[in-house]
Amino acid sequence: MSAYANVTRTNLGTQGRDNIYNLIYTTITDPVNNTTSSSRTWIYKRFPNTKAVGFQNYPFIVLSYPSMEVEDKCLSHFKFLQFNIPGTIYCRFDYNGKIRANTLINSLIAQVNLKANQDTLESYGVKAVDVEIDESSTEVHEKQEVIATPFTINFDVDIDVEE
């Protein structure tokens, strides 16, 4: 796990996502262990090999790297950037899976919108954070039927281009 850090011109492609990852990892309860900061790996950068020996079961979140849009607005030596981080919550397609999917979605929305968390992220350069939840669907991955709930976390960063 990486730590919270300021988003700068030199870590632009990774640190914003790492700060969002830290927010999720430290504030959302892992439904399997019923704890935050779980020792179980349950947040990935890409879909894991669910047949591998080390796979630690459903549910899990895939939090990809962000896409970036540069706004034309430039104020003195600052550049305004908008980031979109795509993610998906995966749960087993059964009664408990549906409950866990809903719990994770509600927790994600609540934690992203919590003022204290917004203030923490802003102190590291991640601003105007919001989350959009898309409609859930069922998918089959390695012969396992799962509920997939896509989401996007959006945020802004102001970068000092003269640093």
Quick recap:
By secondary structure, the protein is of the alpha+beta class.
Helix and strand layout, with pairings?
Blueprint: H1 15-27, E1 43-44, E2 60-63, E3 67-75, E4 78-92, H2 95-113, H3 115-123, E5 127-133, E6 137-141, E7 144-160
Parallel strand pairs: 1-2
Antiparallel strand pairs: 2-4, 3-4, 4-7, 5-7, 6-7
Strand content: 35-45%
Under CATH, the topology can be stated as Alpha-Beta Plaits
The CATH architecture name reads 2-Layer Sandwich
Highest CATH level, the class? Alpha Beta
Unreliable residue stretches: none
General form: elongated
Straight-line distance between termini: 27 Å
Element order, helices and strands? HEEEEHHEEE
The domain tally reads 1
Q: Which radius of gyration do the C-alpha atoms yield?
A: 17 Å
Number of H/I helices = 3
Helix/strand structural class: alpha+beta
- Give me the count of strands: 7
Give the name of the CATH superfamily.
Phage minor tail protein U
Biggest sheet descriptor = 7 strands, mixed
Q: Whole-number average pLDDT? A: 87
Helix content: 25-40%
Mind explaining what this structure looks like?
By secondary structure, the protein is α+β, with helices and mostly antiparallel strands. The protein has a single domain (15-160), classed as 2-Layer Sandwich (Alpha-Beta Plaits), CATH 3.30.70.1700. Helices cover 25% and strands 36% of the residues. A hairpin with a 2-residue loop joins β6 (137-141) and β7 (144-160). The two termini are 27 Å apart. The relative contact order is 0.21.
